[in-house]
Amino acid sequence: MTYIVVVVGYVLMLLGISVYKSRSVKSAEDFMVAGRSVPVYMLVATLVCTWIGSGSLFGTAGLTFRTGLSELWFSAGAWVGILVIYMIAARVRRIAQYTLTDLLEKRYNQLAKVLGTITIIIAYMVIAGYQFKGGGRFIAILSDGSISPETGMIIAAFLIVGFTVLAGMVSIVSIDIFNGSIMLVAMVLTLPFAISGHGGLGAVITTIQQTQPTHLSLMGGHDFVWVVGIALPTFLLLMSESSMYQKFSSADNEANARKAVMGMFVGVVVVETLMMLIALVGFAIYADDPRFFLADGSINRAMAEEIILRIGFEQLPVVIGSLLLAAGAAIVISTGNTFLMVTSTNVTRDIFQAFFYKNATATQILWIQRACIVGIGLLAYLMMSQFDTILEMALMSYTMIGASLAPPLLAAFFWKRVTCAGGVASIASGMLTVVIIAVLNSVYKGSAEGINVLGVSFPMDTDYIAIPAVIVSVTTLVVVSLLTAKPQQSDWEEFIEA
User: Fold this and answer.
1) Phi then psi dihedrals of residue 293, to 5 deg
2) Label partner for 277 (CA 20 to 30 A): which of 172, 309, 431, 447?
3) Predicted local confidence at residue 335, as pLDDT
């Protein structure tokens, strides 16, 4: 009962903050980019909370349970991506557009913006949707099974959509300072208590060595191709994560946008490393628990994704466990808010405002976006049946965004020779490749024979889907750009510093 009281109390506090902040929303700019007045400490918190979502709480945890220390390659892809983002954060704030697709239009053309919008809508609905799925599992654990994951998913969807509709970006950055703080404190306290609960560090290491010694290796028994396949999606998503570009535009100045990226780097590295270590300790704790393994001895991937929350609910003192579960609620709500916000901004600006309501007033745009949040939330909920695990959903959506948008976006900031045709072709080919892989995986899912296309077998393990998608996107970008006329200096000078 204590767990429920603490979590519900925390959620109600966040709701109160959102209601209070909703009174300050006077324009579309307030709703979309918080009036471009967010100080650096709040920007750091909201950027960390953007990245640490259900993909980390469930996906990273499940991957660690399955592969051990080698999960760090999955997380490290994002860490490298943050360092690259550091180089362009100030320029993004200076250009001061609302969304990543605004940047694509400014560097390439309107077709690039439309294709980018379509990509973001599809992928971000999946990401928002697995916050609902993660929230459903969270509520099922919190209620000790009295609420089913399916019912919990409906409750989570309702809460996340409601938070986002209230105050948009103003609400998100306001509550994320609390979410980021409780997330960090909970992880720092959970790790030593979890280790102590299993008899100390020596006992944890001994159990892992006896059960699965490769879990203590950085390669985890995998080869270099696996490392590339698992690191690429997080790296590429970080490069083209639209919500971060939107939050850069929320910064109060260029210098603070850049400082916030370094703060984000430190925060993400610390939190993700702690989550990986907690999940690894969890493997030792539950090494003999039949719930986490299938009849053939293989790991139950869906159950493994619940390892951190299971530790909080079943292994820790009530006070620490309650704090960890409150952090779990913060992670799900914060990331769900952000991805609904970004998707609705793209739909509102790039579709409704661009093609249907060109002369809409600021108030009309505000209410159109709120309606879009509700509609997108419903569609995201309906997409959940297509995937078995949150990690599978994360890898597919990360690759959709990364392979389609990261190459043309990076080229816009670092390659003067890239052309409009090259950028558009890269977005289209990357998106199409991921869609084809997803369709073939769905068609041949569970098939004993499968199919072989150009030497690639389907269904394809989602750990590897980023590799062919990136190869196609980058090749298309370079070849088409070199075959078309050079861009004028005015096309690239605002993006590339002297």
Assistant:
1) -135, 150
2) 172
3) 76
Contact 293, 306 (CB under 8 A): no
Q: How far is CA 309 from CA 114, 128, 361, in A?
A: 39, 20, 45
- Residue 439 identity: V
pLDDT of residue 33: 46
| pLDDT band with cut points at 50, 70 and 90 for residue 337 | confident
Residues paired with residue 299 on neighbouring β-strands, in sequence order: 293
**Residue 453 pairs with which residues in a beta bridge?**
456
Average pLDDT of the residues in 413-428: 89
Residue 483 is predicted with a pLDDT of 92
Closest of 110, 201, 155 to residue 332, by C-alpha: 155
Residue 42, pLDDT above cutoff 80: no
**φ/ψ (deg, to 5) at 75:** -70, -40
> Which among 140, 173, 168 has a CA at the least distance from the CA of 40?
173
Once rounded to an integer, what is the mean pLDDT over residues 26-31? 50
For residues 192 and 189, give the distance between their C-alpha atoms in angstroms, rounded to a whole number.
Answer: 6
Rg (CA), the chain: 22
Tell me how far apart the alpha carbons of residues 401 and 131 are, in angstroms, rounded to a whole number: 17
- CA 217, distance to chain mean position in Å, is 26
Q: How far apart are CA 247 and CA 251, in angstroms?
A: 7
Higher pLDDT, 317 or 364: 317
Q: How far apart are CA 237 and CA 65, in angstroms?
A: 23
Domains, the chain = 2-395 (1.20.1730.10)
Strand pairing partners for 456?
453
Residues 6+ positions from 150 with CB-CB distance below 8 Å = 136
Q: Buried b vs exposed e over 393-406: b needs ≥16 C-beta within 10 Å? A: bbbbbbbbbbbbbb
Residue 39 CA to residue 51 CA, distance in Å, equals 19
Q: Using omega within 30 degrees of 0 as the cis cutoff, is the peptide bond preceding 459 cis? A: yes
